[in-house]
Give the backbone structure.
Amino acid sequence: MFEIFQFDFMVRAFAAGIAIAIVAPLIGIFLVVRRYSLMADTLAHVSLAGVAIGLLVGFNPILTAIVVSIVASIGIERLRNTKKIVGESVLALFLSGSLAVAVILLSLAQGFNANLFSYLFGSISTVNVFDLSLIVGVTILIATIVFLFYKEFFFLSFDTDLARASGVPTKALALLLVILAAVVVSLSIRIVGVLLIGALMVIPVVAAMQFGRGFRDTIFLSVGFSLLSVITGLYISYYWSIASGGAIVVVALVIFLLSLLLNTNRS
Amino acid sequence: MHIEKGPYIQLEDVNFSYGNNQVLGGVSFDVEKGDYLGIIGPNGGGKTTLLKIILGLVEPDSGVVRIMGHDIHNLKDRSVIGYVPQRIGAALHPFPATVEEVVASGRIVKAGILKRFTREDRSAIEYAIEIAGIKEYRKRLIGNLSGGEIQKVFIARALAGEPKILILDEPTTGVDVGSQKKFYEFLSNLNHEHHLTIVFVSHDINVVSSEAKTIICLNRNLVCEGPADKILKEDVIKKLYGDEINVVVHQH
Protein backbone atom coordinates (compact mmCIF):
# COMPACT_ATOMS: atom_id res chain seq x y z
CA MET A 1 0.00 0.00 0.00
CA PHE A 2 2.85 2.36 0.87
CA GLU A 3 5.21 1.21 -1.86
CA ILE A 4 3.88 3.88 -4.21
CA PHE A 5 5.53 6.50 -2.02
CA GLN A 6 8.97 5.32 -3.18
CA PHE A 7 8.28 7.48 -6.24
CA ASP A 8 8.87 11.18 -5.71
CA PHE A 9 6.10 12.13 -8.12
CA MET A 10 3.59 10.14 -6.06
CA VAL A 11 4.68 11.86 -2.85
CA ARG A 12 4.23 15.21 -4.58
CA ALA A 13 0.85 14.15 -6.00
CA PHE A 14 -0.41 13.06 -2.56
CA ALA A 15 0.88 16.19 -0.79
CA ALA A 16 -0.68 18.46 -3.42
CA GLY A 17 -3.87 16.36 -3.45
CA ILE A 18 -4.27 16.60 0.32
CA ALA A 19 -3.82 20.38 0.19
CA ILE A 20 -6.44 20.68 -2.57
CA ALA A 21 -8.78 18.30 -0.71
CA ILE A 22 -8.74 20.58 2.32
CA VAL A 23 -9.17 23.88 0.54
CA ALA A 24 -11.69 22.91 -2.19
CA PRO A 25 -14.69 22.25 0.12
CA LEU A 26 -13.58 25.05 2.45
CA ILE A 27 -14.42 27.53 -0.32
CA GLY A 28 -16.96 25.24 -1.99
CA ILE A 29 -19.34 25.31 0.97
CA PHE A 30 -19.80 29.08 0.64
CA LEU A 31 -20.49 28.71 -3.08
CA VAL A 32 -23.03 25.95 -2.45
CA VAL A 33 -24.99 27.73 0.28
CA ARG A 34 -24.99 30.97 -1.74
CA ARG A 35 -26.46 28.91 -4.62
CA TYR A 36 -23.42 29.71 -6.66
CA SER A 37 -22.14 26.21 -7.41
CA LEU A 38 -21.85 26.97 -11.11
CA MET A 39 -19.20 29.56 -10.25
CA ALA A 40 -16.60 26.81 -9.71
CA ASP A 41 -17.26 25.36 -13.17
CA THR A 42 -17.18 28.79 -14.78
CA LEU A 43 -13.87 29.66 -13.15
CA ALA A 44 -12.52 26.26 -14.19
CA HIS A 45 -13.25 27.04 -17.83
CA VAL A 46 -11.75 30.49 -17.41
CA SER A 47 -8.62 28.95 -15.92
CA LEU A 48 -8.33 26.75 -19.02
CA ALA A 49 -7.96 29.97 -21.00
CA GLY A 50 -5.23 30.88 -18.50
CA VAL A 51 -3.55 27.52 -19.08
CA ALA A 52 -3.72 28.11 -22.84
CA ILE A 53 -2.03 31.51 -22.43
CA GLY A 54 0.70 29.86 -20.34
CA LEU A 55 1.25 27.16 -22.97
CA LEU A 56 1.26 29.73 -25.76
CA VAL A 57 3.81 32.07 -24.18
CA GLY A 58 5.83 29.31 -22.52
CA PHE A 59 5.10 30.40 -18.94
CA ASN A 60 3.98 28.24 -15.97
CA PRO A 61 0.31 27.52 -16.88
CA ILE A 62 -0.82 27.37 -13.23
CA LEU A 63 0.38 30.91 -12.62
CA THR A 64 -1.26 32.26 -15.78
CA ALA A 65 -4.44 30.37 -14.85
CA ILE A 66 -4.46 32.01 -11.41
CA VAL A 67 -4.03 35.50 -12.88
CA VAL A 68 -6.65 35.05 -15.61
CA SER A 69 -9.24 33.49 -13.29
CA ILE A 70 -8.76 36.23 -10.67
CA VAL A 71 -9.32 38.90 -13.34
CA ALA A 72 -12.41 37.01 -14.57
CA SER A 73 -13.79 36.58 -11.03
CA ILE A 74 -13.56 40.35 -10.50
CA GLY A 75 -15.30 40.86 -13.86
CA ILE A 76 -18.08 38.42 -12.92
CA GLU A 77 -18.74 40.13 -9.58
CA ARG A 78 -18.73 43.60 -11.11
CA LEU A 79 -21.12 42.55 -13.86
CA ARG A 80 -23.39 40.89 -11.32
CA ASN A 81 -23.43 44.03 -9.19
CA THR A 82 -24.47 46.22 -12.12
CA LYS A 83 -27.58 43.98 -12.33
CA LYS A 84 -27.64 44.52 -16.08
CA ILE A 85 -27.28 40.78 -16.60
CA VAL A 86 -29.39 38.32 -14.62
CA GLY A 87 -27.54 36.16 -12.01
CA GLU A 88 -26.52 32.93 -13.71
CA SER A 89 -26.37 34.42 -17.21
CA VAL A 90 -23.13 36.15 -16.18
CA LEU A 91 -21.65 32.74 -15.40
CA ALA A 92 -22.87 31.25 -18.69
CA LEU A 93 -21.32 34.19 -20.51
CA PHE A 94 -17.92 33.70 -18.92
CA LEU A 95 -18.06 29.90 -19.12
CA SER A 96 -18.65 29.64 -22.84
CA GLY A 97 -16.69 32.78 -23.68
CA SER A 98 -13.53 31.66 -21.91
CA LEU A 99 -13.82 28.16 -23.37
CA ALA A 100 -13.96 29.70 -26.86
CA VAL A 101 -10.86 31.79 -26.09
CA ALA A 102 -9.10 28.72 -24.67
CA VAL A 103 -9.85 26.65 -27.78
CA ILE A 104 -8.47 29.37 -30.07
CA LEU A 105 -5.34 29.86 -27.98
CA LEU A 106 -4.74 26.11 -27.68
CA SER A 107 -5.08 25.77 -31.44
CA LEU A 108 -2.47 28.50 -31.84
CA ALA A 109 -0.24 26.82 -29.26
CA GLN A 110 -0.87 23.44 -30.92
CA GLY A 111 -1.79 22.19 -27.46
CA PHE A 112 -4.38 19.58 -28.45
CA ASN A 113 -2.33 16.62 -27.27
CA ALA A 114 -1.74 14.43 -24.22
CA ASN A 115 -0.49 17.49 -22.34
CA LEU A 116 -3.90 19.12 -22.69
CA PHE A 117 -5.60 15.90 -21.54
CA SER A 118 -3.70 16.16 -18.23
CA TYR A 119 -4.98 19.74 -17.72
CA LEU A 120 -8.54 18.72 -18.51
CA PHE A 121 -8.76 15.63 -16.31
CA GLY A 122 -5.77 15.80 -13.93
CA SER A 123 -2.63 13.77 -13.91
CA ILE A 124 -0.67 12.55 -10.90
CA SER A 125 2.64 12.53 -12.73
CA THR A 126 2.63 16.22 -13.63
CA VAL A 127 3.02 17.88 -10.20
CA ASN A 128 6.53 19.31 -10.10
CA VAL A 129 8.35 20.74 -7.07
CA PHE A 130 7.39 24.32 -7.97
CA ASP A 131 3.71 23.37 -8.33
CA LEU A 132 3.77 21.59 -4.98
CA SER A 133 5.32 24.57 -3.18
CA LEU A 134 2.79 26.89 -4.81
CA ILE A 135 -0.19 24.64 -3.99
CA VAL A 136 0.80 24.11 -0.34
CA GLY A 137 1.78 27.75 0.24
CA VAL A 138 -1.40 29.18 -1.27
CA THR A 139 -3.55 26.56 0.48
CA ILE A 140 -2.18 27.69 3.85
CA LEU A 141 -2.88 31.30 2.88
CA ILE A 142 -6.47 30.54 1.79
CA ALA A 143 -7.20 28.43 4.89
CA THR A 144 -5.93 31.29 7.08
CA ILE A 145 -8.14 33.82 5.27
CA VAL A 146 -11.20 31.58 5.68
CA PHE A 147 -10.38 31.13 9.38
CA LEU A 148 -10.09 34.90 9.85
CA PHE A 149 -13.24 35.75 7.85
CA TYR A 150 -15.27 32.73 8.90
CA LYS A 151 -17.94 34.67 10.84
CA GLU A 152 -18.29 37.30 8.14
CA PHE A 153 -18.47 34.75 5.30
CA PHE A 154 -21.15 32.87 7.24
CA PHE A 155 -23.19 36.05 7.80
CA LEU A 156 -22.83 37.05 4.14
CA SER A 157 -23.97 33.61 2.99
CA PHE A 158 -26.88 33.24 5.39
CA ASP A 159 -28.39 36.71 5.09
CA THR A 160 -26.68 39.12 2.70
CA ASP A 161 -29.26 41.89 3.14
CA LEU A 162 -29.03 41.87 6.91
CA ALA A 163 -25.23 41.72 6.77
CA ARG A 164 -25.26 44.78 4.50
CA ALA A 165 -27.76 46.63 6.70
CA SER A 166 -25.52 45.87 9.70
CA GLY A 167 -22.55 47.55 8.06
CA VAL A 168 -20.68 44.42 6.95
CA PRO A 169 -18.77 45.16 3.70
CA THR A 170 -20.72 42.54 1.75
CA LYS A 171 -19.52 43.49 -1.74
CA ALA A 172 -15.87 43.29 -0.72
CA LEU A 173 -16.44 39.96 1.05
CA ALA A 174 -18.30 38.48 -1.91
CA LEU A 175 -15.46 39.58 -4.18
CA LEU A 176 -12.86 38.08 -1.84
CA LEU A 177 -14.79 34.81 -1.86
CA VAL A 178 -14.86 34.52 -5.66
CA ILE A 179 -11.18 35.46 -5.88
CA LEU A 180 -10.37 32.68 -3.41
CA ALA A 181 -12.51 30.31 -5.48
CA ALA A 182 -10.60 31.37 -8.61
CA VAL A 183 -7.27 30.59 -6.95
CA VAL A 184 -8.46 27.21 -5.63
CA VAL A 185 -9.73 26.22 -9.06
CA SER A 186 -6.45 27.15 -10.74
CA LEU A 187 -4.38 25.34 -8.13
CA SER A 188 -6.42 22.17 -8.58
CA ILE A 189 -5.78 21.86 -12.30
CA ARG A 190 -2.80 19.53 -11.93
CA ILE A 191 -4.57 17.05 -9.66
CA VAL A 192 -8.27 17.13 -10.57
CA GLY A 193 -8.23 18.84 -13.94
CA VAL A 194 -10.21 21.78 -15.28
CA LEU A 195 -13.36 19.83 -16.09
CA LEU A 196 -13.69 18.15 -12.71
CA ILE A 197 -12.57 20.66 -10.07
CA GLY A 198 -16.10 22.02 -9.76
CA ALA A 199 -17.18 18.58 -8.61
CA LEU A 200 -14.56 18.44 -5.84
CA MET A 201 -15.70 21.83 -4.55
CA VAL A 202 -19.36 20.85 -4.53
CA ILE A 203 -19.90 17.07 -4.12
CA PRO A 204 -18.19 16.62 -0.70
CA VAL A 205 -20.19 19.61 0.57
CA VAL A 206 -23.57 18.32 -0.58
CA ALA A 207 -22.66 14.87 0.79
CA ALA A 208 -21.87 16.44 4.19
CA MET A 209 -25.12 18.44 4.09
CA GLN A 210 -27.09 15.16 4.01
CA PHE A 211 -26.12 14.63 7.67
CA GLY A 212 -28.13 17.67 8.81
CA ARG A 213 -25.40 19.18 10.98
CA GLY A 214 -24.52 22.80 11.69
CA PHE A 215 -22.28 24.90 9.48
CA ARG A 216 -19.00 24.23 11.27
CA ASP A 217 -19.65 20.47 11.48
CA THR A 218 -20.64 20.42 7.81
CA ILE A 219 -17.31 22.04 6.90
CA PHE A 220 -15.35 19.41 8.87
CA LEU A 221 -17.40 16.59 7.36
CA SER A 222 -16.97 17.89 3.82
CA VAL A 223 -13.21 18.27 4.25
CA GLY A 224 -13.16 14.68 5.57
CA PHE A 225 -15.11 13.42 2.55
CA SER A 226 -12.92 15.41 0.20
CA LEU A 227 -9.73 13.96 1.73
CA LEU A 228 -11.16 10.46 1.47
CA SER A 229 -12.07 11.06 -2.18
CA VAL A 230 -8.68 12.47 -3.14
CA ILE A 231 -6.55 9.87 -1.32
CA THR A 232 -8.63 6.92 -2.57
CA GLY A 233 -8.84 8.46 -6.05
CA LEU A 234 -5.07 8.90 -6.27
CA TYR A 235 -4.52 5.25 -5.28
CA ILE A 236 -7.01 4.10 -7.92
CA SER A 237 -5.42 6.42 -10.47
CA TYR A 238 -1.97 4.92 -9.84
CA TYR A 239 -2.94 1.25 -9.78
CA TRP A 240 -5.43 1.38 -12.66
CA SER A 241 -3.51 3.99 -14.70
CA ILE A 242 -6.52 6.27 -15.11
CA ALA A 243 -6.86 10.06 -14.96
CA SER A 244 -6.71 11.16 -11.32
CA GLY A 245 -9.54 13.71 -11.66
CA GLY A 246 -12.00 11.08 -12.86
CA ALA A 247 -11.07 8.63 -10.11
CA ILE A 248 -11.34 11.30 -7.39
CA VAL A 249 -14.73 12.56 -8.53
CA VAL A 250 -16.17 9.03 -8.90
CA VAL A 251 -15.11 8.27 -5.29
CA ALA A 252 -16.69 11.56 -4.17
CA LEU A 253 -19.90 10.58 -5.97
CA VAL A 254 -19.94 7.17 -4.24
CA ILE A 255 -19.53 8.95 -0.87
CA PHE A 256 -22.40 11.27 -1.79
CA LEU A 257 -24.67 8.36 -2.74
CA LEU A 258 -23.83 6.52 0.50
CA SER A 259 -24.52 9.70 2.51
CA LEU A 260 -27.85 10.12 0.75
CA LEU A 261 -28.79 6.49 1.31
CA LEU A 262 -27.74 6.51 4.95
CA ASN A 263 -29.67 9.65 5.74
CA THR A 264 -32.75 8.74 3.71
CA ASN A 265 -33.00 5.53 5.71
CA ARG A 266 -32.38 7.35 8.99
CA SER A 267 -35.01 10.03 8.34
CA MET B 1 -23.42 55.60 20.96
CA HIS B 2 -25.77 57.53 23.24
CA ILE B 3 -28.11 60.42 22.90
CA GLU B 4 -29.91 61.73 25.94
CA LYS B 5 -32.53 63.77 24.11
CA GLY B 6 -34.27 63.72 20.75
CA PRO B 7 -35.93 60.98 18.75
CA TYR B 8 -34.30 57.58 18.13
CA ILE B 9 -35.47 57.60 14.51
CA GLN B 10 -36.17 60.77 12.57
CA LEU B 11 -37.40 61.02 8.98
CA GLU B 12 -37.61 64.36 7.24
CA ASP B 13 -39.43 64.75 3.92
CA VAL B 14 -38.33 61.37 2.55
CA ASN B 15 -39.20 60.73 -1.11
CA PHE B 16 -38.59 57.61 -3.12
CA SER B 17 -39.62 56.41 -6.59
CA TYR B 18 -39.02 53.30 -8.66
CA GLY B 19 -38.67 54.90 -12.07
CA ASN B 20 -41.83 56.99 -12.59
CA ASN B 21 -43.70 55.17 -9.85
CA GLN B 22 -43.62 57.19 -6.64
CA VAL B 23 -43.47 54.83 -3.66
CA LEU B 24 -42.98 57.37 -0.87
CA GLY B 25 -43.85 61.06 -1.02
CA GLY B 26 -42.78 63.57 1.63
CA VAL B 27 -42.76 61.15 4.55
CA SER B 28 -41.73 62.71 7.87
CA PHE B 29 -42.09 61.32 11.39
CA ASP B 30 -40.17 60.72 14.61
CA VAL B 31 -39.89 57.59 16.72
CA GLU B 32 -39.15 58.37 20.34
CA LYS B 33 -37.12 56.28 22.78
CA GLY B 34 -39.23 53.45 24.22
CA ASP B 35 -41.92 53.75 21.55
CA TYR B 36 -43.72 50.73 20.14
CA LEU B 37 -44.66 51.81 16.63
CA GLY B 38 -46.76 49.86 14.18
CA ILE B 39 -46.77 50.81 10.50
CA ILE B 40 -49.86 49.79 8.54
CA GLY B 41 -50.93 50.26 4.99
CA PRO B 42 -52.08 48.39 1.92
CA ASN B 43 -49.79 46.19 -0.17
CA GLY B 44 -47.62 48.41 -2.35
CA GLY B 45 -48.10 51.30 0.07
CA GLY B 46 -44.35 51.62 0.67
CA LYS B 47 -44.05 49.94 4.10
CA THR B 48 -41.12 47.65 3.30
CA THR B 49 -39.39 50.37 1.26
CA LEU B 50 -39.69 52.68 4.25
CA LEU B 51 -38.03 50.09 6.49
CA LYS B 52 -35.25 49.59 3.95
CA ILE B 53 -34.65 53.34 3.86
CA ILE B 54 -34.48 53.47 7.67
CA LEU B 55 -31.98 50.58 7.59
CA GLY B 56 -29.87 52.30 4.94
CA LEU B 57 -30.48 49.48 2.43
CA VAL B 58 -32.26 51.80 0.01
CA GLU B 59 -31.18 55.36 -0.74
CA PRO B 60 -34.10 57.84 -0.81
CA ASP B 61 -34.35 60.27 -3.75
CA SER B 62 -34.44 63.10 -1.24
CA GLY B 63 -34.94 63.64 2.46
CA VAL B 64 -33.02 62.86 5.63
CA VAL B 65 -32.95 59.80 7.89
CA ARG B 66 -31.38 60.12 11.31
CA ILE B 67 -30.79 57.29 13.74
CA MET B 68 -30.16 58.43 17.32
CA GLY B 69 -29.22 61.86 16.06
CA HIS B 70 -26.82 60.65 13.35
CA ASP B 71 -27.45 60.77 9.63
CA ILE B 72 -27.88 57.14 8.50
CA HIS B 73 -24.82 57.53 6.23
CA ASN B 74 -22.63 58.57 9.17
CA LEU B 75 -23.96 55.96 11.57
CA LYS B 76 -20.79 54.20 12.67
CA ASP B 77 -22.32 51.81 15.17
CA ARG B 78 -24.94 49.94 13.13
CA SER B 79 -25.49 47.51 15.98
CA VAL B 80 -27.90 50.05 17.56
CA ILE B 81 -30.50 48.68 15.13
CA GLY B 82 -31.66 45.09 15.27
CA TYR B 83 -33.54 43.99 12.15
CA VAL B 84 -35.88 41.06 11.77
CA PRO B 85 -36.60 40.57 8.06
CA GLN B 86 -39.66 38.83 6.67
CA ARG B 87 -39.20 35.11 7.23
CA ILE B 88 -37.54 33.51 4.23
CA GLY B 89 -39.34 30.20 4.90
CA ALA B 90 -38.52 27.37 2.53
CA ALA B 91 -35.33 29.09 1.35
CA LEU B 92 -33.82 28.35 4.76
CA HIS B 93 -34.36 24.63 4.47
CA PRO B 94 -31.14 23.40 2.90
CA PHE B 95 -28.89 25.85 4.77
CA PRO B 96 -26.73 23.87 7.20
CA ALA B 97 -26.84 26.23 10.17
CA THR B 98 -27.91 25.58 13.74
CA VAL B 99 -30.07 28.01 15.71
CA GLU B 100 -27.02 28.84 17.82
CA GLU B 101 -24.92 29.71 14.76
CA VAL B 102 -27.66 31.94 13.35
CA VAL B 103 -28.11 33.81 16.64
CA ALA B 104 -24.33 34.27 16.97
CA SER B 105 -24.22 35.94 13.54
CA GLY B 106 -26.24 38.79 15.05
CA ARG B 107 -23.27 39.59 17.31
CA ILE B 108 -20.66 39.90 14.55
CA VAL B 109 -20.95 43.66 14.01
CA LYS B 110 -21.06 44.44 17.73
CA ALA B 111 -18.01 42.23 18.33
CA GLY B 112 -16.18 43.94 15.46
CA ILE B 113 -15.37 42.70 11.98
CA LEU B 114 -12.51 40.17 12.02
CA LYS B 115 -12.53 40.04 15.84
CA ARG B 116 -12.99 36.76 17.67
CA PHE B 117 -15.95 36.51 20.07
CA THR B 118 -15.01 37.47 23.62
CA ARG B 119 -16.57 36.11 26.81
CA GLU B 120 -18.85 39.17 26.83
CA ASP B 121 -20.01 38.40 23.28
CA ARG B 122 -20.73 34.78 24.23
CA SER B 123 -22.76 35.94 27.26
CA ALA B 124 -24.81 38.31 25.06
CA ILE B 125 -25.54 35.46 22.63
CA GLU B 126 -26.56 33.19 25.52
CA TYR B 127 -28.78 35.91 26.97
CA ALA B 128 -30.49 36.47 23.62
CA ILE B 129 -31.14 32.72 23.29
CA GLU B 130 -32.55 32.67 26.82
CA ILE B 131 -34.93 35.62 26.58
CA ALA B 132 -36.20 34.50 23.18
CA GLY B 133 -37.03 31.13 24.79
CA ILE B 134 -35.23 29.04 22.17
CA LYS B 135 -32.81 27.21 24.46
CA GLU B 136 -34.32 23.79 23.86
CA TYR B 137 -33.76 23.85 20.12
CA ARG B 138 -30.48 25.70 19.95
CA LYS B 139 -28.73 22.75 18.31
CA ARG B 140 -31.42 22.16 15.69
CA LEU B 141 -31.09 23.24 12.08
CA ILE B 142 -32.84 26.53 11.30
CA GLY B 143 -34.57 24.99 8.27
CA ASN B 144 -36.26 22.35 10.44
CA LEU B 145 -38.15 24.83 12.63
CA SER B 146 -41.74 26.06 12.40
CA GLY B 147 -42.61 29.62 11.33
CA GLY B 148 -43.06 30.86 14.90
CA GLU B 149 -39.82 29.24 16.04
CA ILE B 150 -37.84 30.76 13.15
CA GLN B 151 -39.23 34.18 13.99
CA LYS B 152 -38.02 33.82 17.58
CA VAL B 153 -34.58 32.79 16.33
CA PHE B 154 -34.42 35.88 14.13
CA ILE B 155 -35.41 38.07 17.07
CA ALA B 156 -32.73 36.40 19.21
CA ARG B 157 -30.24 37.11 16.42
CA ALA B 158 -31.26 40.78 16.45
CA LEU B 159 -31.06 40.91 20.26
CA ALA B 160 -27.58 39.33 20.32
CA GLY B 161 -26.20 42.66 19.09
CA GLU B 162 -27.83 44.42 22.08
CA PRO B 163 -29.69 46.93 19.88
CA LYS B 164 -31.53 50.02 21.08
CA ILE B 165 -34.07 49.78 18.27
CA LEU B 166 -35.74 46.64 16.95
CA ILE B 167 -37.24 46.78 13.46
CA LEU B 168 -39.48 43.97 12.23
CA ASP B 169 -40.93 43.45 8.74
CA GLU B 170 -44.26 41.55 8.74
CA PRO B 171 -43.07 39.48 11.70
CA THR B 172 -45.95 37.01 11.83
CA THR B 173 -46.32 36.10 8.16
CA GLY B 174 -46.82 32.35 8.01
CA VAL B 175 -47.15 32.04 11.80
CA ASP B 176 -50.30 30.34 13.14
CA VAL B 177 -52.81 32.40 15.16
CA GLY B 178 -51.94 30.82 18.55
CA SER B 179 -48.23 31.46 18.08
CA GLN B 180 -48.97 35.00 16.85
CA LYS B 181 -50.53 35.92 20.19
CA LYS B 182 -47.56 34.58 22.13
CA PHE B 183 -45.20 36.31 19.72
CA TYR B 184 -46.74 39.74 20.28
CA GLU B 185 -46.76 39.18 24.06
CA PHE B 186 -43.04 38.53 23.79
CA LEU B 187 -42.56 41.68 21.70
CA SER B 188 -44.57 43.73 24.18
CA ASN B 189 -42.43 42.35 26.99
CA LEU B 190 -39.26 43.42 25.17
CA ASN B 191 -40.69 46.91 24.92
CA HIS B 192 -41.86 47.14 28.56
CA GLU B 193 -39.28 45.13 30.47
CA HIS B 194 -36.20 45.57 28.29
CA HIS B 195 -37.02 49.14 27.19
CA LEU B 196 -36.44 48.34 23.57
CA THR B 197 -37.78 50.80 21.00
CA ILE B 198 -39.78 48.74 18.51
CA VAL B 199 -40.92 49.51 14.98
CA PHE B 200 -42.87 46.88 13.08
CA VAL B 201 -44.66 46.71 9.79
CA SER B 202 -47.81 44.71 9.23
CA HIS B 203 -50.64 44.58 6.74
CA ASP B 204 -52.86 43.27 9.56
CA ILE B 205 -54.71 46.29 10.91
CA ASN B 206 -56.17 44.31 13.86
CA VAL B 207 -52.76 43.23 15.09
CA VAL B 208 -51.27 46.71 14.80
CA SER B 209 -54.23 48.44 16.48
CA SER B 210 -54.19 46.03 19.42
CA GLU B 211 -50.42 45.77 19.93
CA ALA B 212 -48.73 49.06 19.01
CA LYS B 213 -48.68 52.16 21.22
CA THR B 214 -48.35 54.44 18.22
CA ILE B 215 -49.46 53.91 14.65
CA ILE B 216 -48.38 55.28 11.33
CA CYS B 217 -50.68 54.77 8.35
CA LEU B 218 -48.82 54.71 5.08
CA ASN B 219 -50.14 54.67 1.57
CA ARG B 220 -47.25 56.24 -0.31
CA ASN B 221 -47.89 59.34 1.81
CA LEU B 222 -48.36 59.55 5.54
CA VAL B 223 -52.13 59.19 5.98
CA CYS B 224 -52.20 59.34 9.77
CA GLU B 225 -49.92 59.25 12.79
CA GLY B 226 -50.67 59.02 16.50
CA PRO B 227 -51.85 56.81 19.39
CA ALA B 228 -53.66 53.67 18.23
CA ASP B 229 -56.92 54.33 20.10
CA LYS B 230 -57.24 57.89 18.83
CA ILE B 231 -56.43 57.82 15.15
CA LEU B 232 -57.89 54.65 13.69
CA LYS B 233 -61.26 56.12 12.74
CA GLU B 234 -63.40 54.86 9.88
CA ASP B 235 -62.55 57.78 7.57
CA VAL B 236 -58.81 57.21 8.04
CA ILE B 237 -59.13 53.48 7.33
CA LYS B 238 -61.20 54.16 4.21
CA LYS B 239 -58.61 56.69 3.08
CA LEU B 240 -55.95 54.04 3.56
CA TYR B 241 -57.64 50.96 2.10
CA GLY B 242 -60.40 52.44 -0.08
CA ASP B 243 -64.12 53.12 0.31
CA GLU B 244 -65.16 49.53 -0.27
CA ILE B 245 -63.82 48.45 3.12
CA ASN B 246 -66.25 47.79 6.01
CA VAL B 247 -65.04 48.83 9.46
CA VAL B 248 -66.26 46.72 12.40
CA VAL B 249 -65.06 47.96 15.79
CA HIS B 250 -64.70 45.48 18.66
CA GLN B 251 -63.19 45.62 22.14
CA HIS B 252 -60.04 43.55 22.72
